[in-house]
Amino acid sequence: MAGSHQIQASNRIYTVVDDLSRAYRVLLKGQVRDEATGELPRTGFSVIAQLNGVKGRALEGGLFYLAGYAEQVFPDLKNSSYNVTLSVNAPGYREATSTVLVPANTTLPFDLPPVQLRPLPIRLQGRVIEDKSNRPPVENALVKIVGGPGPGEKTVSLRTPLHFNHINGTAIQGCQLNPSGTAKKLIDAAPAGQKILTLNNRTGLAANDLIYFGSDISAEYGLIESIDPLPADPNQPGRIRVRSGLYHSFAATTAVQKVIPNLAGPAIHLAREANAGDGLIILDAATNAVALRIEDALSQLVEYVALGALTDADGYFHLDGIGRVRTIELDVSATGFNPLPGPAAWTIDYKQPVNTINFRLSKP
User: What is the pLDDT of residue 1?
Assistant: First the structure.
């Protein structure tokens, strides 16, 4: 039988019998960690569950809980399971969203799996010089990320970050990308994100052709989605549309070259999922390829990427989208120079959007 109590109002005493007793209590609890370092996130965070009547609170030590009235949130928990979608946000990190199953007849509070917050990727840049007193720059040196963060994992750096998301296990194929036909030119400047491009001519181009923008230092590739039918003469300037928006910005008159991919070597796979904007991916095997084809199961998400960064005439290089791991190993090579004694280890400082590392190469 429900309990009773008395209250006084307007000089009258009322006896109240509660016919429903509910407690606002912790329903779900969990912990947040930095994916790259395994430590507590370096900033504060917030957590939201897509459940009516639930409020989340972040605590010290990366802990959090979600509280509410169990009878409202999980009205039939004794007999039914519930899917809970969580979103965790923190400055300097990607949003982490996951769906967790709360089993039927579970005891509350329910322990959620740890939430891994992925730091926003950084730019790695620097300069390669000759090991001489006047320190002349080394042009066209190749800077690569090698090694791997764990057993059976190999890190690979991309000259231009990915345009699309790809799931764990996606097939990867090494390839050579060979020029075909005469280069075209951009009529108008193409800012980052642009998909529709105007070329001085479209001769020899068709839907699904692979094209290459700019110089080897930028090395951005795109697949043609469609070509405008007008003007009918392909020798005249006209527009094409590529599947993904450009990562870089390109000036008018930038060369646009059709290339033919020649696949080579065994297929390997992503050892971890990869996101658009990632310039470092983790594979299940090493590769010596100069470029990769990301063989996504969805044909519209297939893309091509060149590997490593090249130095310019002043010896400078950069790699964008570097993340996912705490420490990387870098190797540098250039024609006519001795190889490094061994890869150089670098612990990424995710608090700094740009990390700088320089190299010296010697001649035989």
Answer: 43
DSSP H or E run through 193: none
Do 179 and 258 touch, CB atoms closer than 8 A? yes
Predicted pLDDT of residue 11: 76
- Percentage, residues of the chain above pLDDT 70: 96
Q: Which long-range contacts (CB under 8 A, 24 or more apart) does 145-150 make?
A: 145/280, 145/308, 145/319, 145/322, 145/328, 145/329, 145/330, 146/329, 146/330, 146/331, 146/343, 147/328, 147/329, 147/343, 148/282, 149/282, 149/324, 149/325, 149/326, 149/327
Reduce the DSSP state of residue 71 to 3 states and report it.
helix
For residue 58 the two structure tokens come to 């972040």
* Residues 337-347 as b or e (16 or more Cβ within 10 Å = b): beeeeeeeebe
Q: What is the pLDDT of residues 235-267, one digit of tens each?
A: 999 999 999 999 999 999 999 999 999 998 888
By C-alpha distance, which of 227, 180, 225 is closest to 201?
227
Dist CA 194 CA 209 (whole Å): 18
Tell me the β-bridge partners of 206.
none
Q: Which residues pair with 111 in a beta bridge?
A: 29
The model's pTM is: 0.85
Q: How far apart are CA 207 and CA 227, in angstroms?
A: 7
CA triple 275-278-281, angle to 5 deg: 90
Q: What is the mean pLDDT of residues 178-205?
A: 95
Predicted local distance difference test score (pLDDT) of residue 18: 61
User: What are the pLDDT digits (tens) for 296-351?
Assistant: 999 999 999 999 999 999 999 999 999 999 999 999 999 999 999 999 999 999 99
- Whole-angstrom Cα distance, residue 145 to residue 343? 9
* pLDDT over 70 at 118, yes or no: yes
CA distance 109 to 7: 33
Domains of the chain listed by start with CATH number: 24-117 (2.60.40.1120), 122-176+265-361 (2.60.40.1120), 177-262 (2.40.10)
Tell me the torsion sign for CA atoms 18, 20, 24, 25: positive
